[in-house]
Amino acid sequence: MPSYGDCQTAEIDATPERCFEALTDYEHLPSWQGAVRSARVLERDDQGRGSIVEYEVDARVKTVRYKLRQVYDAPRRLASEYFGGDFRDFSGEWRFEPVDGGRTRAELDLKIDPGRFVPGPVRGAIADAVMKRALKDLKAHLEAR
């Protein structure tokens, strides 16, 4: 079965540290990430950070559930390795690069293997729900403060 990937970027009026902190505050993600219905930390690392996180996401065509192992390189990178759920594979990473004026270039790079053929329009809806909305919501959340 084919896997699908995409990379999206946005410039955000916040530091890389603020971007990283917002995305790793898992318990509060559903309050500002529109597609995230729930995010539950199942395991923590020795620094108290979520190491395995279970997500429930409204992908518009269906609600999907999956677990990710989080890999930290604070504050520049947050990577995720698939740990089970509704996909065959799901991995990706957020990258944060500082730009002039205390702003950040945020990049979300995802690869998804649903384990079956997904028609183009459905694939587009999933990409929109998972990626474009995630970046847009992060930007809105941080710039509203």
Average pLDDT taken over every residue: 90
Spatial strand arrangement across the major sheet: 1-7-6-5-4-3-2
- The low-pLDDT segments are none
| Secondary structure: helix percent | 10-25%
Radius of gyration: 15 Å
Q: Give the termini separation.
A: 43 Å
Hey, roughly how much beta strand do the residues contain?
over 45%
Number of strands: 7
The total count of helices amounts to 3
Category by helix and strand content: alpha+beta
Largest sheet features: 7 strands, antiparallel
Q: Which word captures the global form? A: globular
Q: What pattern of helices and strands is seen along the backbone?
A: EHHEEEEEEH
Describe, in short, the structure shown:
By secondary structure, the chain is of the alpha+beta class.
Can you give a write-up of this model?
By secondary structure, this protein is of the alpha+beta class. The protein contains three helices and seven strands. Strands 1-7-6-5-4-3-2 form a seven-stranded antiparallel sheet. Strand 4 and strand 5 form a beta hairpin. The termini are far apart.
Which helices and strands, and how do they pair?
Elements: E1 4-12, H1 16-23, H2 29-32, E2 36-44, E3 50-58, E4 63-73, E5 77-85, E6 89-99, E7 103-113, H3 120-143
Antiparallel strand pairs: 1-7, 2-3, 3-4, 4-5, 5-6, 6-7
